[in-house]
Write a structure and sequence with these properties.
- Helix content is 32%, strand content 15%.
- By secondary structure, it is an alpha+beta fold.
- The protein has a single domain, classed as Glutaredoxin, CATH 3.40.30.10.
- A hairpin with a 5-residue loop joins strand 1 and strand 2.
- The longest helix has 13 residues.
Length: 183
């Protein structure tokens, strides 16, 4: 199984088969407009601009499961990213990433790249872990996505090669993209 087996919806509701990205490295992100990590849009857009000419694609999927930080419509989520962060990579339709109503793509991503734990030397990771422990301890179990701005790097064959937590340094993602471009 690969991401090419899934179909998703754009913000306008139209369906997109992910095999449209066949042969390209892809970064898939669950996003939110009102999150502490929302400023990562600027870094993600910068990486997109840096690697777009090399064929790397980025896809954002707004999600309202974490603290209801994406309360608006699909179009509001997309507009927010474009207006406030100059995001030019596609922001698709809202979906759920965990639980019974999780989109099958995210079920696949979570199982292909399980959660490996938070970096306890990273203060933001410690704070996020404390908050989740207090408010939603069940999210710490298993392969669930822990918060907004979890990123998955997909290789040219449509396979998940890495998972990045919201607290991971953006340079880790950049180096992993570079590695995919040389394979």
């Amino acid at each position: 199984m690969t991401i090419y087996d899934f179909t998703v919806r754009k913000s306008d509701g139209s369906r997109v088969p992910l095999y449209a990205f066949e042969g390209k490295p892809v970064v898939i992100i669950n996003t939110a407009s009102k999150c502490t990590f929302t400023p990562q849009f600027a870094d993600l857009q910068s990486l997109y601009e840096q690697y777009r000419a090399s064929g790397v694609e980025f896809i954002g999927f707004p999600c309202n499961q974490f603290g209801e930080q994406e309360p608006g419509s699909n179009q509001e989520a997309e507009s927010f990213c474009q207006i406030n962060y100059g995001v030019k990579f596609p922001i698709y339709g809202k979906l759920e990433v965990n639980g019974d109503n999780a989109h099958p793509l995210f079920d696949y991503l979570r199982k292909a790249a399980p959660f490996k734990g938070f970096d306890d030397s990273n203060m933001n990771a410690k704070l996020l872990k404390m908050m989740i422990t207090e408010k939603n301890p069940e999210w710490l179990l298993g392969d669930s996505i822990k918060w907004n701005f979890t990123k998955f790097l997909i290789n040219r064959q449509g396979e998940v090669v890495a998972r990045f937590e919201p607290t991971d340094e953006m340079d880790l993602l950049r180096r992993s993209i570079e590695a995919q471009l040389h394979t």
